[in-house]
Structure formats: structure tokens, C-alpha cells
Amino acid sequence: MMDGRTESLFAADGAAPAAYASVVVDIPARALSDPFAYEVAPALAGDIAVGCAVLVAFGHRPAIGYVVALADSIDELPGAEGLAGKRIRAIDAVLTEPVCSAYAGAVAYWMSREYVAPLAECLRLFLPPGGTPRLRHAADGSYELEPPAVPEVRERVVSLTPAAADYLPPARAVRQRQLMEALACGPVTTRELNLLYTDLSAAIRALEKRGVVEVRERRAWRGIDDQTTLSSARSSAPAALTAGQSAALGEIERAVDDGADDVILVDGVTGSGKTEVYLAAIEHVLAAGRTAIVLVPEISLTAQTVGRFRSRFGGAVAVFHSRLSAGERLDQWDMVRTGAARVVVGARSALFCPLSDLGLIVIDEEHEQSYKQGSSPRYHAREVAAQMAHLGGFPLVLGSATPSAEALHRCRVGEYLGQRWCRVEMPERAGAGRLPDVIVADLRREFAGGARSIFSRPLREALLEVAERREKAVLLHNRRGFAPFLMCRDCGCVPTCKHCSTALTYHERTHTLECHTCGATYRVQPYPAPGSACPKCGSRYLAKMGMGTQQVEDALIELMPPEAKVIRMDADSTRGKDAHKRLLEEFDAAESAVLLGTQMIAKGLDFPEVTLVGVVIADYALKMPDFRASERAFDLLEQVAGRAGRGERAGKVIIQTYLPDDPVIRAVAAHDRAIFTSHDDAERAEALYPPYVRLTNVVVRGRDDARVRAYIGAVARAVMDEADALGAGAGTGEEPVRLLGPTSCVIERAKDQYRHHFIIKSAPGLDISGALFRAVERVGAKPGVKLSVDVDAYDLM
Q: Which of 293, 430, 633, 782 is geometrically suited to a Cys-Cys bond with 273, CB 3.0 to 4.6 A?
């Protein structure tokens, strides 16, 4: 078994024949937290390499594993010290050529330790989606090897042989003559030949038999429909960079050329041209023969971003995100592995594509919570990318108009965990764009004046002016559905999910109540429809409370003239494949339109025709029971405000709120981040919240509430025992570790399971992950309960 030396794992050389291998066994259990040493038989030495899938014996059963290191002797194998002279099992078979990058083992091992997750679960992130073999437990107790769930696509290619120069088809062999003419300029696939001349299979067989043509198979790629009409998806290099762009690009190029693992925060206002900095930096990296990864937080941004990168780098750009089919993901992954693509653009999962000689990672909109994985392993893409940059000796670039508190703090300190962090500011917009004017509409005054409309007078007038001038507007309302909940006006009952302790959201289009926790759906008829009935008291006065995007859409359609198109973009309207792209193309093509949506429309979108941004009500985000609520609200409002005024026409932003004096609202209105950050930073320092501590959330769930309570109590006691052993005085005041709870979660029951948790506050330099690993191992697994560990937690609900 192996220790925590990820550096040696990363540097392992798999090119030369080796006698021993470190193998990660593909069994996702926390107890299997290390690779295992296996012998490589001489017959397999020529086929094995780092990244191969292999068949091994593990205990009393066969298992599939992945080679993460190779060595000529057992003493040279990282982490296998002391095994010399002992019996070591041999690898049974090599199943595939390398299927993951050479550094996958090192990064997966670090992730397993950092996020208290099974090693195999972490390594699976680096494997081709559906493209690796599996073992199936047969009915008779034996194990069968299954082929990959997603097969490769193959194509047949026809080409002329040297013998073709001496072959002359008979006069009546018209099809043979057509075939030879088609191949005169080079090899052609059978599919292309059939499209040109219908079926040429008989002619191909005849000439192949005579040795005139040869037919061979090769890997083919499934096509992706990523073509877009979005005007913002095209990019040409500007005549000159702004001063801020030049400074940012210079800092990145210096780090690339020096082989430095610096983390560079590009802190640029909305519209400052951060994408152009990324493009220019990647040009520099590609010129040096290396490759790059670009992460974006929203699938809605993918078409725009991919279009810009394709316009600069052509077919060398691969796309990777969850909305692709399994076959499309496999093919994009394989394009990267084979070197057909040298730049990967995509969501969080694109970080694990197998690029060789990686030279740069860019994380755009780095503040976004979507970079945090919600299921095990609960990694943060920023932290994994920083570790990859450290191991690979290349820079990580973070870009945002609203950088996270953690990134800003690390840049102020100048380093984090041995890596240099620096910030480059881009305070000016590129081109003709300028920051918009922000108007705060005080809804208290509107209400006092008798107004009951969704839209305040300033917003209503501004929307009508946009339609009159044939311009475009973006309207943010971060609540999907028609109404957040229904409530009985007789007894106060709020219908909740049968499986979760959460209120149900009403959807007007389908007349359903939907649980946004587990997805359960219930038919309903709210008041005043016939059949409306409270599930508790039977009263028919089951009324809609609050409002969602569907209700705002109805009000917009009623307000706006017919020529102004209203387009709604939320989780309900974008469920289908390519729905994001289709809706944005519709908005882009319209002469005058209003794009109404949730947070997915707030960042990254670039439409110069947008002159108005409206926020229906800013207060939802401000008052969530979370210490990050104010930061998220500021990010959301500042980002959506940045959609206005990106072209030659001036922009205006109208924010409707009942809290005009809140620091977040004042900061956005003044375009002055310090108004918010000084207030927020002081609160976090006093209450000991990130970035001044690390926050870990440990959740236990199960159907038996008593068993869940007993188990989480045992785990909490074990954690405190391990934490005490780490010693005091690590920087969190009097205690290096503080444990809050155990207690029930805010959402106490979800999917018919009771949920309890405790929260750990620990000093940034403390090995809390190691303490958790040991504590969980000590308590052991218990039937009927499941434990999840979320290090650097974002969701505490």
C-alpha cells in the first residue's frame, strides 16, 4: 500500500518496461484508501503503462484496477517500502491501453485524502465516460467481464494502392472508374463515397480483391451540434489590448515561461475583456507545444465560449459537459486523449480530461458555487486545479468581476499552501462599453403609494422605453415556477413533500406542486379553481403565495407590446438538450426582446444590444440562512448589472428592493465592491467563517432516526478525539477546532431519509481531513446509515 507522497506518484515513469505496478482497485470504499502493489509478468511488460485498466485478484474475487505507477523493483515503487521479499500477486491481464492521464493517480490520491472520499471514486473522475470495461457478478457467483457501456464508433477508409497506377478498369466498369476517380485525391470513407455515388460496396470489394484499393478501419468521432448563430460566439483579436489586459496577459505569460505554479486572479469589471486575455494566453501556451483547459460555470455559457475559442483555434477545441450524450462525451474525451484536440472548454468535469503536457488551466467566473461538486467526492474545482498546477508546474488563472472571499484573502496574504497567489486588476471596460447607471427602486415607497404591480414605476417605464427604441432588456428573478408555495388562508397549512421536509413549489403551466429537493410531483388546483382544497382542513382557499418566473413572465407579456419578444430561461424551460443555446439564439436574433430568467442569465452573456437590466426583487438572495448569502447576493446583482451597456449605447440597471440601505445594494449601486467587502469581511473574521477558518459539514442520513442520531454522535466524539490530538494554537483563537452540533439539518428529511449533521470550524493550516479520515475509520460503517463528508462546505442545509 502507498503513503501520501503524491509528488512521487505524479513523477512515476511508465514508459520503460517495469516489474511492479501500483494499482488503484475500482472498489469505492473508504477503507481502500491506497493503491496496491502488484507484480508485472514478463509477458505483460510490453503492454502495460501508467493509465492502463488491468484485471487483478483482490481478496477472493477478481477486480478491475488502474495503473498509477510503475517501477523496476519493489523498493522503487512509491509507497511500497518494506514489501521486498514478500509474496506479491501478479496482474492477470492488461485490459486497455492507457485510459487516463499520467497524473490522474497523483491527483486522485490527493483528492481522496483532502475530501475524505474513496480513492476509486476519485480516480473514476479521470476515466472515459462509459468507455471502460466492467465486472458483472453472474447468477452462479462467478464474475464476467463486460465490454464498455458506450462503444467506440469506427469507420472504414478506402485508399488507392501503388498497384492502382497500372490498373485500367474495363469500359463497362463505370462504378470502378467512379471509385478510382474519387480516391485520386486521397483516402475517403465509405460513408462519404456512398453519399456521393450511392452504394459502391461491390466496386470496393472487386478492386480490393485485385489489390487496387485497400480498406482499413479507424476511430471516428460522433458529431456534436455546437454550431450557433450567436453573434457573441465569434472572436477576433483586437487591434490593441487595454492596459489592464496587457498587465494580466504579461503576468500569465511570465508564469508559463518560468514553469511557475502561480495562481493568478484576473479581477476585471464586467465587460473588461477577460476572455480576450484567456485567448491570448492560450495562444502563447499552444505555441510552446502545450495544452489548456478552460472551465465555465454554466452550460448556458458553453455555446458562446466554445464559439469564441473555435473562431480562434478551429477544430483543436473539444467540448465537455453533462448535456452531451454518453457517446458524445466519450468521443470528445478520446479526441483529447489522442491529441486531436488541444484545448478543452466545458463545465466542472472538463478538468479531468486527459490532456497531455498540460500548460494552463483557466477558471472563468471563479466565484461561482457550481464549481463545488454536490456529491462524493465533494471537491472544489478551484482547489483541484491548484493542485494540478502545483504538480505540473504551470499557472492557474482565475477570472471574475466578483472574486470569491477566499481568492481575495489568499491574494492579500500572497500565498496559500505553498503556492503564490497574486491579483491583477482590470478596472476599465474594453472598447466603447462603460459601466451602467444603477437605480434602486424602493418598494416600501411604491407600496406606501398604493402600487401593487410586480414592476415599480421606474422599471415599468424603462421596459416600455426599451420596446419603443427596439432595444433589449434582461430581467432577473431568481425563483423558478409560478409561486414559491401554496398556503391555506383558513388554517395556514403549507403543502410539503411526502418524502422531504420542504415546501412544494407551484407550477402554473402544469398545475402541479413540485419538490425541488427530490423531484416529486403532485397534481393540484389552487384557489379560485373548482376543486381547490387544503390537504389539512379541506378549505378551498389554498392560495398562491409569492411569485416565480412563470408569474413574472405572464405579467411581462401583459405589459410589453407584441413586437417585444418575452423569453423565459430557467431550469424548467432549459431541460431539453441544447435548450440554453436555442433560447439565447432566439434572444440574439430578435429585434426587441426581454430575457427573463434565474441566476443562469446573470453571468458571462455578452449582448451589446442590452441597454436595460432589471431585478424584480433583490431581497430573496439577501436573507437566506447562510453566512455566504450576502456574498452570493452581491455576486448575482453585480454580475447581472454587468449585462447592460456593453455596446455603444448606454446601459441602465434598476434594482427593486425593500432593503435599499443594505451594504450589498449600496455597493452594487455605487459600483464600489469595498462597501460590501469591508462589512462582510469584518463579520466573517468576528464569527470565524471562511476564509479565516475551513468549514466542514458532516451529514449522516438513514430511514431510522434513532440510529442516525446514535451514529452521528459516535462520529462527532471520534472527530473531537482526533482533533485534540492535533494540538492547540493553530490560529482559530483558543481552539484549533470547533465542533457545532450534532443537530438535525435545516431540511431534516429528504427522500424519506432523516438527516443530522455537525459542522467543524478548523484553522486553515490544520489537517482536518486526516483527522476525519481516522475518525470515520475508527467508528466504522453501520448498516442502515450513510455518512457524507463535505470539506470546505458551501451547502449547509
A: 430
User: Strands 610-615 and 472-476: what pairing?
Assistant: parallel
What pLDDT was estimated at residue 481?
Answer: 67
- How far apart (Å, rounded) are the C-alpha atoms in residues 306 and 531? 50
What pLDDT is stored for residue 308 in this prediction? 87
Exposure b/e, 398-437, CB count within 10 A at least 16 = b = bbbbbbbbbbbbbbeeeebeebbbebbebebbbeebebbe
Q: At what angle do helices 663-670 and 629-641 cross, to 10 degrees?
A: 20
Tell me the pLDDT tens digit for each residue of 628-684: 989 999 999 999 999 998 888 889 999 999 899 999 999 999 999 999 999 999 999
What is the pLDDT at residue 141? 75
Q: What is the pLDDT of residues 188-236, one digit of tens each?
A: 999 889 888 888 899 999 999 999 999 999 888 776 666 677 766 677 7
Cell triple for 654: 434598476
Phi, psi (5° rounding) for residue 672?
-130, 95
Q: pTM for the whole thing?
A: 0.87
| CA dihedral for 24, 25, 27, 33, sign (positive or negative) | negative
Residue type, position 432, single letter: A
Residues sharing a CB contact under 8 Å with residue 142, sequence separation 6 or more, in sequence order = none
**Residue 652 in contact with residue 436, Cβ under 8 Å?**
yes
- Which sign does the torsion angle of CA 546, 550, 553, 555 carry? negative
The Cβ of residue 266 has, within 10 Å, a number of other Cβ atoms equal to: 29
Overall residue count recorded for the chain in this entry: 797
Answer yes or no: are the C-beta atoms of 125 and 108 closer than 8 Å.
Answer: yes
Q: In the numeric block, which cell numbers belong to residue 442?
A: 424602493
Beta-bridge partners for 335: none
Q: Which residues does residue 363 pair with via DSSP β-bridges, in sequence order?
A: 295, 398
* Cα separation, 715 vs 214, whole angstroms: 66
Kindly tell me the sign of the dihedral angle through the C-alpha atoms of 206, 209, 210, 216: positive
Copy the grid coordinates of residue 221.
468521432
Q: Copy the grid coordinates of residue 100.
A: 487516463
Q: Are 330 and 129 contacting, i.e. CB atoms less than 8 angstroms apart? A: yes
Give the residues of the chain that fall short of pLDDT 70.
1-17, 81-82, 84-85, 223-227, 231-233, 300-301, 481-483, 625, 727-735
Give pLDDT, residue 619: 85
CB atoms closer than 10 angstroms to residue 172:
8
Which DSSP category does 366 fall into? T
Query: Which long-range CB contacts under 8 A does 130-138 form with residues at least 24 apart?
Result: 130/326, 130/327, 130/329, 130/330, 131/99, 131/330, 131/333, 131/334, 132/53, 132/64, 132/96, 132/99, 133/53, 133/64, 133/95, 133/96, 134/64, 135/62, 135/63, 135/64
Integer CA distances (angstroms), 378 to 116, 373, 389, 738, in order: 9, 5, 19, 21
Q: Give pLDDT, residue 646.
A: 83
The reported pLDDT for the residue numbered 3 is 38
Which pLDDT value is given to residue 84?
Answer: 67
**What residues contact residue 629 under an 8 Å CB cut-off, 6+ apart?**
621, 622, 623
d(CA 361, CA 344): 10
Domains, the chain, with CATH or none: 6-146 (3.40.1440.60), 153-220 (1.10.10), 231-237+244-426 (3.40.50.300), 437-480+548-687 (3.40.50.300), 483-546 (no CATH), 694-791 (3.30.70.600)
Distance of CA 793 to the CA centre of its chain: 16
H or E element at residue 105: helix 104-114
Instruction: Give me the pLDDT at residue 269, please.
Output: 93
